[in-house]
Amino acid sequence: MKESLQFTHINEQGQARMVDVSKKAATERTAVAYGEIRMNQEVASGIKNQTIKKGEVLQVARVAGIMAAKKTVELIPLCHVLALTKCEVDFSWKTAQILSVRCLTKTVGVTGVEMEALTGANIALLTIYDMCKAMDREMNIMNVCLLEKSGGKSGHFISTNQEINE
């Protein structure tokens, strides 16, 4: 006998719905997302020396990532509206031509903030691409993932992705 699947985002009539989280306890919740962008040497030097024609790439990308995290509910269907209490976007050079981003999000609430962290990381990377695409159309956005999540009933999650954690 075939078991019926219980989709949490579909009601008994097969219609999309937002999950009811009203019975869940509010807890402090955090998430950290990660991503990378590989670029040519000219772009990497331009970002490092702040000589990109469009302006200061990392400051613009940082603000874009924070703004995107705050607007996740407008981008991902069925996400809950969350009041972020913290959002940070940080960059570091993994190699001479690979720039990594970490987006940390935090709230006190009844549902997690991992979609907000992932949205912030992705939009920060896309903003870098947009600001530098005239110099390198082959930039590669890669390895976007959830690094860590805490709070809620599922507990503390830490990624075991060896490639990212190196």
TrEMBL record:
Identify the EC number(s).
4.6.1.17
Q: Which residues form the active site?
A: 130
Sequence ranges assigned to domain Molybdopterin cofactor biosynthesis C (MoaC) in this UniProt record: 18-152
Q: Which pathway does this chain act in?
A: Cofactor biosynthesis; molybdopterin biosynthesis
**Catalyzed reactions:** (8S)-3',8-cyclo-7,8-dihydroguanosine 5'-triphosphate = cyclic pyranopterin phosphate + diphosphate
Quote the Pfam families the UniProt record gives. MoaC (PF01967)
Its signal peptide is none
What this chain does, per the record? Catalyzes the conversion of (8S)-3',8-cyclo-7,8-dihydroguanosine 5'-triphosphate to cyclic pyranopterin monophosphate (cPMP).
Regarding protein family, the annotation reads: Belongs to the MoaC family.
What is this protein's record name? Cyclic pyranopterin monophosphate synthase
- Organism in which the protein naturally occurs: Enterococcus rotai
Q: Gene behind this chain?
A: moaC
